[in-house]
Amino acid sequence: MRLVRGSALAWQPVMRSQVAFFTGVLLAGSVVAARPGELVRSEANSDFELLRPLSTGRACLVRGATCLSAGGSDTVLLPAVTASADPKAIRELPAFRRTQGGDSAWALEIDSYLDRPALAGCVLFLVYDLADPSSIEQHEVTAMHQGKIAGGRTVAARLRLSPNDGFHRDHDYRLQIVQLVRGRELVLAQGDFSLR
Prior knowledge:
2 domains; 4-stranded antiparallel beta sheet; 196 residues; 10 strands; Immunoglobulin-like; 1 helix
């Protein structure tokens, strides 16, 4: 066995080639392909699920916006509320209430017609608490979810927002759908909502 100076681990040449082989096999298993509009399955996550935009039965017709609806029987859509975080801009936000109290989560479904076509690959769903006016500028997210999409103009997803993860009732939030392209953060769509 040959030891490498300065290394805490001593690897035999055979071991290095086995590690390289298995790393290659794992990476090859993560290659994805899909036609535009198709969903590429992401890892199982009960708090986040990408949906097929055309199969939701809903369509968001506002370019660059996120259209939100209740994502399960445990969440209801309330009449719109006036934004509390930005007193200068009077606007109404969709509001959601849990049907059960305690630590139960709000379930939201998102449909979005993106401002520009998304590239095939990773897309981020970032949720910011608007109670902190600098959260967006400082990139201090309350939640971040990611998934792989095939690309195109529409995206749909289901989110579960739990008090255990930092979500609070009577707070307003901003959801941004983002892709990182060549070192730049491209905001493809965004929208605000309120949890009650």
